[in-house]
Write a structure and sequence with these properties.
Blueprint (H helix, E strand, L loop, with lengths): L2 E10 L2 E11 L4 E5 L6 H9 L6 E6 L2 E2 L5 H6 L2 E4 L11 H6 L15 H7 L16 H13 L5 E5 L7 H16 L3 E6 L2 H7 L2 E6 L2 E7 H6 L1 H7 L3
Parallel strand pairs: 3-8, 3-9, 6-7, 7-8
Antiparallel strand pairs: 1-2, 1-4, 4-5, 9-10
């Protein structure tokens, strides 16, 4: 198991967000973390990544307890986080945005991510190599921020609402690109409000409501449970 989250409780000040969240991700899986806006999906990812420290529970990554470790230490272990806000460097070019995140692969047997490999995965970025990040469209910025995270050669990719604010055609293309990452063997935890988008990409799913896990199971089980989908996902 590459990621194990056990009984996680996280708060912002006096505002309790997560109530005993537990989930697991196996190597090579794409697991969806679903639910409406404000149910705790982003807080779960931030708690895993070390950006918001939980006050109870455990997070294990490749068997190592990383609970409460700062994000830079978690990243060094091989976890990559793609935030919803994207946070590219607007005054750097596409290539510079990628190069600044370059990190050697953890193993000599792994093929490291390079700028050229990112352009192969996201072909739309290749002709924009010299354009500054602030002049990219929303979809181009999303591809760039995923590519920048890949340059760190992560074993596990945390994607926070990657389809947010994108046009339907861009979302479709993004889905194909995420599928390609999965085919390459990358493990993905996909946090999405757009459940239909996430379900097409994922092997299993967890659904959050008010900081509690209300469903966990295979995508087939979720698709077969009309009541759960209507109640928590709205379709």
């Amino acid at each position: 198991m590459i990621l194990e989250v056990d009984d996680l409780y996280t708060a912002y000040g006096l505002s309790q967000i997560l109530f005993g969240v537990s989930l697991a991700v196996e190597k090579g899986e794409c697991v969806a973390l679903l639910g409406r806006n404000g149910v705790g999906k982003t807080t779960t990812l931030r708690s895993i990544m070390g950006l918001t420290a939980p006050h109870r529970g455990r997070v294990r990554y490749n068997g190592v307890d990383i609970t409460g470790r700062p994000a830079f230490q978690v990243a060094k272990l091989g976890m990559g986080f793609v935030p919803e806000e994207r946070r590219i460097f607007p005054d750097l070019t596409v290539r510079q945005n990628l190069e600044v995140a370059r990190k050697p692969a953890a193993s000599q047997h792994e093929r490291p991510w390079t700028v050229e490999a990112v352009f192969e995965t996201f072909p739309a970025l290749a002709p924009l190599t010299g354009r500054k990040g602030g002049y990219l469209s929303g979809g181009e910025q999303q591809m760039l921020t995923i590519g920048r995270t890949l340059m760190g050669n992560p074993d596990l990719l945390l994607l926070d609402e990657p389809s947010e604010g994108l046009a339907p055609l861009v979302v479709r293309d993004l889905g194909r690109q995420i599928s390609r990452l999965k085919e390459h063997g990358l493990t993905i935890l996909l946090c999405e409000q757009n459940a239909k988008f996430a379900i097409k990409l994922s092997d299993r799913a967890y659904i959050l409501e008010k900081g509690h896990v209300r469903f966990s199971g295979s995508i087939a089980a979720l698709q077969a449970d009309d009541e759960v989908r209507r109640q928590h996902l709205g379709f």
